[in-house]
Amino acid sequence: MLKIEPLGDRDVVEAAQLHRVVLDMEFLSRFGPRFMRTYYRAWIHSPGGLALVARERDGALLGVLLGASDPALHVRAMVRDHGLGLAGSIAARALTSPPLAKDLIITRARRYLRGLYRLALKRRATSSAGSNDGTGRRVGEITHVLVDPGARSRGVGRELVAAAVALVREAGVQELTLVTPPDMDARHFYERLGWFQEGSMQSQSGEEFLKFRLHLDAAED
Ligand SMILES: CC(C)(COP(=O)(O)OP(=O)(O)OC[C@H]1O[C@@H](n2cnc3c(N)ncnc32)[C@H](O)[C@@H]1OP(=O)(O)O)[C@@H](O)C(=O)NCCC(=O)NCCS
Questions:
Q1: 110-154 per-position pLDDT tens digit
Q2: Ligand 1, pocket residues at CB < 6 Å
Q3: How far apart are CA 27 and CA 90, in angstroms?
Q4: Does domain 2-215 have CATH number 3.40.630.30?
């Protein structure tokens, strides 16, 4: 029996650890355990953020979903409230890992420094009245879904996404988007759940991603 709950303080250590195991190839995972814990903590009280955990009845953590009903609001709150903690963890890790420091400078330093600059300007996080994609529709996003390898193909991922869809729909979101690397199996998972692929994009750091979208008006929970 599966329980889907909002991510809470007690989940942070386990969820961050699961993330590093399941998505060890992701750049974020290279920033280390301290960074990942702060990253997860930043979701807990974020206005506009969406974070869920799936647990077995006996309490074992089986999966995690991160996303946002209002991505712009969430990112501003994350930078404002946790930007310094995240930057400190990255700097500490980079100092002990020259390859990471090099990749960081080449692919991300400019973007991260821009975020810190904004933080220094003390921009206050205010509601963006719903992120939209230029069409006036409210668009949320899923940034990560990850399931413990020992608990795959049991519907955990499906339940996490269904719970996220129900929550953002209640918040007035009309569409959800996500990106996933072209070489990962997750694309078939999202297609199975009714998402449709709408092209690809290159991240600001230069990686290729497939873009997926789900219209909530038409989606089944
Ligand atoms: C992708 C992932 C979240 C799926 O979780 P899961 O709990 O195993 O998926 P579910 O059991 O809920 O599957 C839901 C449906 O998707 C299908 N599906 C799941 N993974 C699939 C895959 N790799 N290829 C094809 N179909 C897949 C299932 O068959 C199922 O369809 P059905 O109900 O019609 O049989 C999980 O494999 C995972 O954590 N992968 C690594 C992390 C990742 O890639 N995350 C996404 C990018 S952030």
A1: 777 776 676 666 554 444 445 566 678 899 999 999 999 999 999
A2: 22-23, 144-147, 152-158, 180, 184-186, 188-189, 192
A3: 11
A4: yes
Burial of 153: CB neighbours in 10 Å, binned 0-12, 13-18, 19+: exposed
For the chain, the domains span: 2-215
Q: For atom 18 of ligand 1, which residue has the closest CA?
A: 189
Q: For residue 55, report the distance from its CA to the centre of ligand 1, in Å.
A: 17
pLDDT-derived band at 44 (thresholds 50, 70, 90) equals: very high
Name the helix (H) or strand (E) containing 170.
helix 156-170
Tell me how far the alpha carbon of residue 182 lies from the centroid of ligand 1, in angstroms.
Answer: 15
User: How far is it, in rounded angstroms, from Cα 37 to Cα 42?
Assistant: 9
Statement: residue 168 has pLDDT above 80: yes
Q: What pLDDT, on the 0 to 100 scale, is given for residue 127?
A: 43
Nearest to 212 by CA among 220, 16, 4, 188: 188
Cα–Cα distance measured from residue 214 to residue 221, given in angstroms and rounded to the nearest whole number: 11
pLDDT, greater one: 99 or 64:
64
- Assign 210 a pLDDT band (cuts: 50, 70, 90): very high
158 Cα: distance to centroid of ligand 1 (angstroms): 7
d(CA 98, CA 188): 36
Going by CA atoms, what residue is nearest to atom 8 of ligand 1?
152
